[in-house]
């Protein structure tokens, strides 16, 4: 479909991969599969953390929040993305685009800060184990989550408002499959240096500063682990921290390359694939990463599956 035919329609045109229709068909299937994996995996983690009393600890409280965040993050983008990939209609209303932009930026900012909070939790658990439950009290954990969501909301309001106020001179064609910040900035018809510098400054606050704190935390954690005399304790610490470091590396790596690189250092298609990666792939991998080497989580998931199996079997007996 020629995007020029839509130029004067209200709202925005999301081109996606309109010039590669065969690729859109393949991507729609891939996105659907990974979205289902994300829904099932993260929902299972949330239920396991809620139902298993052994997982009522600060670590699993934050993991439960991360899983809930991943569900919201993918759901804020995937339905519109599938509409864009499945059919010829590439339009999105102005209000729909605005809501998606604010929510997507808000949830992405939360994940940056939440991963830093989770690293502090691991630092406290390993470096100050005797005071862990006193320091990471339920009230402190709840306050930290509220602060993370509140600060991220403020960041989203500032950046998205600056972006939407940029004059577009009638341009409404976004070379993307969702309303993301870089795509909207590119259609502005004025110098965007001030907005880009604001993004860079806030990027330091929301991306580089948390990453720096995470690296410092894991420096102390590595030193504490090496001093442990118990090999079993070392393995347990490495398993839990290794999972978190893997998630941090995947998420921060793509975010830094996407938002803090020079504006023309990558092709537009490359930017689209990066967006697909941290919107779809990363949230679907998180449940696998956090359960693969975590015996407590594996045990909780087995109990959850056993409860579901028993309840289904009981219903069948009652119906018969």
Give the secondary structure arrangement, pairings included.
Elements: E1 12-14, H1 21-51, H2 58-75, H3 78-86, E2 91-92, H4 94-127, H5 132-135, H6 138-164, E3 173-174, H7 181-186, H8 193-227, H9 231-259, H10 268-292, H11 295-319
Parallel strand pairs: 1-3
Antiparallel strand pairs: 1-2
Question: Overview of this structure, please?
Answer:
The protein is mostly helical and 320 residues long. Helix content is 76%, strand content 2%. The chain has eleven helices and three strands. A three-stranded mixed beta sheet has the order 2-1-3. Helix 1 (21-51) runs antiparallel to helix 3, helix 4 (94-127) runs antiparallel to helix 9 and helix 8 (193-227) packs antiparallel against helix 9 (231-259). It is globular.
